[in-house]
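Lab manual, section 2.4: Encoding a predicted structure.

Procedure: take the sequence of the chain (154 residues), apply the prediction step described in section 2.3, and record the output as structure tokens. A sample record is shown.
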Amino acid sequence: MDQLCWTLYRRSTVNVRKKSGLQALVKNRAPEIIWTHCMLHRSALVSKNNSPELNDIFAQITKVINYIKHSPLRAKLFAKLCEDMDSKYTSLLYYCEVRWLSRAKVIRRVFELKDQVADFLDENDIEDAKLFRDDDFIVKFAYLVDIWEIEYIE
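Recorded output:
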């Protein structure tokens, strides 16, 4: 019972009651188990328990997104920069905690535009530009993108 993952389909609530049924039997053997009723909630729990270092990286990324997207002028200038650099995309996606499922798409887009973001931040004399040129930050950023994409593919 050290590592158990079981998925029930088709609203099997009759067999999964808290006081009698599968959930009660499992809780008796392994009281530390976390019981979720949905795969999406399981993913949300996992992603909230990232290491503090990965959470800091995500916070820095959302700070940069908000800096660029908050001002319509900055957003247009960023789009023009992306067009001039023949980028696949010309804008970043907003991150909203309520829509946490889109988080993987948001950081994937920033990762794909990391060179453009670094150039834009440099042009605006923003100190966070050095992050997007730091190899250690980029490796951790890539790892974050990968684990969140895997989480939503499964």
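Check your result against the sample. Residues 52-70 form the longest helix (19 residues).
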